Amino acid sequence: MRENPLVLHVLGARPNFVKAAPVVRALGELGVRQGIIHTGQHYDALMSDVFFADLGLPEPVANLGVGSGTHAKQTAALLVGLEEVVQEQEPDLVVVYGDVNSTLAAILVCAKLGVKTAHVEAGLRSFDRGMPEEVNRVVTDALADVLFATSPEALSYLASEGVPASKVHLVGNPMIDSLYAALPSLDPAPVVERLGLPERYAVATLHRPANVDTVEAAKELVDAVLDVSRQIPLVVPVHPRGKARLAAAGLDGPSVKVVDPLGYVDFLSLVRGAALVITDSGGVQEETTVLGVPCLTVRPNTERPITITHGTNRLVTPALLPAAAEKALADGASTPAGELPVLWDGQAGPRVAKVISAWLKGDNLAPASQGKRPE
């Protein structure tokens, strides 16, 4: 290993930024030389630039600007762009996050170039290979040299796939670190006033291909969402990839407010003040668990089952969504404050940084598995 090794973080979509910020900050405090490659998978200012500002991330050393496209076209552009940057930067370790196409492309490029890699959020599984993200997760974990798991069940999933235990570290959830850091700034009132929302409202975020990429699926989902809006006013920050399809399916109405994507602090402020969240996003399931906001996930499965067992999240079909919303609104939050998953204590970033720093020095740390629950 070089005397002053370099760590590169590959970030492409807004969840990556949220997960990376605590790790980047903690590595910086340990004096590790590092840089960020922004692939531009989320290229809109509201989907990326504002997240860099909200999370205090440094300017990237490269921005590939790959934009959107089919999985094949986007991944191909990412492979070409990342190979060039990795060869130019000559990192000692590349850290990837989550399950987006940028993560898959980076792990493939580094495997071909012989560059060591670490995967933050390893071992999450929905067991649905029809989800592009599931394919990305499995391939990434098979090729990564160091794997950081956010929850205990991930350890058994990785073991069943033949990943050596010596590579895996249970560190907790860095997305929750970012949430705790932002909590003092999460005030719903200014966002509610700016958007012209009533005091009681629900939030919906919908973008998964299975929900929005066909006319039939989008129409079924929109009809269900409109039914919910008759129970409670809805605000819907719309992801660019589903905007046209959802609009064509009729996502509009007197109690539905469609808005552009929001920055990290604004969005979580909105969620914090909501009576209910409807989503198909993975990260939102975790954030609502911490904030104690009832969450309905419009998917047949989740790679974050811990949110189900902790009582703030429920899987629903579009057909069952209106009735489930009625029940959730009546019941309110069902997880007592303070009862959160193990290691969701705001210290995941420092744990990841400690392992990476030791790895760079050639030390062989035992898997990180200890930590306290939040007060």
Question: Which CATH class of the largest domain is shown?
Answer: Alpha Beta
Could you say what the CATH architecture of the largest domain is?
Answer: 3-Layer(aba) Sandwich
| Spatial order of the strands forming the largest sheet | 3-2-1-4-5-6-7
Give the overall shape: globular
Instruction: Let me know the average pLDDT.
Output: 91
Distance between the termini: 39 Å
Radius of gyration equals 20 Å
Residue share in helix: 40-55%
Q: pLDDT under 50 segments (min length 5)?
A: 368-375
Number of strands: 13
- The CATH superfamily of the largest domain appears as Glycogen Phosphorylase B
Main sheet characteristics: 7 strands, parallel
Q: What percent of residues are in strands? A: 5-15%
- Count up the domains: 2
User: What is the third-level CATH name, the topology of the largest domain?
Assistant: Rossmann fold
What structural class is derived from the secondary structure elements? alpha/beta
User: Treating each run of at least 4 consecutive H or I residues as one helix, how many helices?
Assistant: 16
Query: Element order, helices and strands?
Result: EHEHEHEHEHEHEHHEHHEHEHEHEHEHH
Protein name: UDP-N-acetylglucosamine 2-epimerase (Non-hydrolyzing)
Enzyme class: isomerase
InterPro entries: UDP_GlcNAc_Epimerase_2_dom, WecB-like
Family: Belongs to the UDP-N-acetylglucosamine 2-epimerase family.
